[in-house]
Amino acid sequence: MLPARSSLRSFTRSVLSSFSFSAQRPLSSAMSASPPFHQEPHKLLVIPGPIEVSDDVLYANAHPAMSHVSPEFIPILGDCIRMTREVLLAPTSQPFLISGSGTLGWDQVAANLVEPGEDVLVLKTGFFGDSFEDCLTVYGANVHHITAPVGDVVSQADIAKALKERKYKIVTFTHVDTSTGVLSDAKMIGHLVKELSPETLVVLDGVCSVASEEIRQEEWNIDVVLSASQKGLGVPPGLSILSASQKAIKVFQERKTPVTSYYASWQKWLPVMQAYEKGTAAYFATPPVNLVYALHKSLSIITKESPTLVERWKLHSEASAKVKDACAALGLKQVPVNPENAANGMTAVYFPEGITAGDVIPRLSQLDVVVAGGLHKDIKDKYFRIGHMGVTAVEHQRGDLEKIISSLGSALKDAQAAKNS
Amino acid sequence: MLPARSSLRSFTRSVLSSFSFSAQRPLSSAMSASPPFHQEPHKLLVIPGPIEVSDDVLYANAHPAMSHVSPEFIPILGDCIRMTREVLLAPTSQPFLISGSGTLGWDQVAANLVEPGEDVLVLKTGFFGDSFEDCLTVYGANVHHITAPVGDVVSQADIAKALKERKYKIVTFTHVDTSTGVLSDAKMIGHLVKELSPETLVVLDGVCSVASEEIRQEEWNIDVVLSASQKGLGVPPGLSILSASQKAIKVFQERKTPVTSYYASWQKWLPVMQAYEKGTAAYFATPPVNLVYALHKSLSIITKESPTLVERWKLHSEASAKVKDACAALGLKQVPVNPENAANGMTAVYFPEGITAGDVIPRLSQLDVVVAGGLHKDIKDKYFRIGHMGVTAVEHQRGDLEKIISSLGSALKDAQAAKNS
Q: Which residues carry this modification: N6-(pyridoxal phosphate)lysine (chains A, B) (predicted)?
């Protein structure tokens, strides 16, 4: 019922929009080949997002002003929608690319897929699960949760038990919780829900996992993957990126109560995404044109150039092993309690006994390496976090990993020497 | 009640965030001086937003990746908050700078300032008033409206009558409705509400007016100005920019029911804005770092360089007169029925008899000038729109106005010759 009215409106708008002609030169293709642009020298940013952005992508972010309804821009956004499906191995899904931060993905899920009073199960492996729960509560969900011990995942047995006790509208989990570096087993969760509660929607928070961790959305029975531009995708922050299964879209279309957000409403965005993909414009809110050009550049590299997506996952895994092995050699203990549940796009490690953030992080910064402190409330002063996503993991000629490892060794040595002196 | 909990959380987060040290070089200052960057050649974009962006601002948008909680970035966002107050002449207001499009400003108003069932009066001068009403309805407001005839404003007498009949929580109006080019009298509305219904909050939708039309938020009794980055402020799209009076903040803080949005909640954003302004980081959602650098560059030019803000308003007025006089000389009738209610940042004019969008707009595009077609449902095929905001109005050496005027003359002449042949 809801989408019908919206589709009509979108159609009207797309007709109106077609009057904003423009034949600006397709700069994006010219910009693909060795840009004359080189970003300013800067310290290596290896927090778990935002991450280092390539010159090509930054140059696309400096694209001249373009009309959001122009014949040149329409296929750029259309391509981004199509390439999002490729990156998530979700050929039949419906992507949503919306101006906003990753957090907006939670609102999209809570406002479009949950009706007030419905039961939702949140699997928590850190800070971001707490926040997603908070968001779901705002929109009236009846939230249940299972919280893993710090550094651990929620066990298959606990999830199975919960699914047998109650029928949930949605199960959510954080694929990589940026606060702990814990990687949940998306494949296991997707298959388990399908087996025990096939009507339940599975939502993967992939803000810190898309394009750095293996995700096979459709094969793994994941109904929603939500993410953002500034992590594995290697684009500046400002885009909420979400991919919804046709099953999720059907649940949205059949909801009995009105959508409880305006800006995050798929009632508004679905016809816009459909129009741009078909090659016509539609208007609900102005898309972040430059960020879309930047995303287009990055998704083109990921989906069409070498290494392939599968090779990228492997390169992230190798980068992760390299950093984690170096940490082990330095005597640093991982926050994830099981190596199998450690993220490949980031590393969270405890400081050595007697050493604090103030001893290590400023020293790393002096060496031009920017890492992040702790975030999880239970251990916040005891650990720090290193990101190794995107170009840092994939482009070996940059030497980012070597710089991280050698700087970390020097900083720790200096810190310990200072303590002992 | 609500903000207290939130403040505590923000404090905790700001402490955590302080562990993400980084001493990246302050590139923004280096980037201020004659950048080596020149954007690609492109057609002149003179739709009523997005508008042409200067090389300096685009270069800032290509800033290297920076941590959103770094000591270098914190004052950049802090400065943007302070400069937003300067641009709006609102020295005591609370700005909110959030990743999202201008539309998100409506959600901020509807979710934070209106409680379900409260009466809101929407003064409508075009398409955008209809949409704001739609948004308010989603969040449960009891919406009343007064709709002006196409091209006209709502009269002072009609507003006064409505204010005497009922007490409204909020009165909203679109300062410049981009669909009609109609400029509402913000000063009159602000003063009238203060006189007749002093408790009512006045909300100005300034998406298409901030930095191109005179706005004196505090002097004129405007409680909320909401805007976006891609119009008069001359930045790529992707930032929702809002300034709330202390009276509005108090109304928010004293609300009896929970805020009905997560992403747009001031409960989340207020402590973040306060922290960045004080010089510490706080986290709710990752800010769009590059767009904030771009906004910083543009706001610095507007508030600190020549021309001054007041001179800018005059330059927009002069640019507008120049374009409107040229249109009159070509026999084109304005959509605004009264010249006093015509925007200074854009021009909406009817096509001559027998001429359509398809005759004129593609011809303008051939001449490298991109304008916009009609948007208001009642007259959509009968008119078109030209934007003259930002650098197009202010930097005479660009010759944008001359190019618009000469191209328009040629395109119309060609279109008429083709009809007559």
A: 231
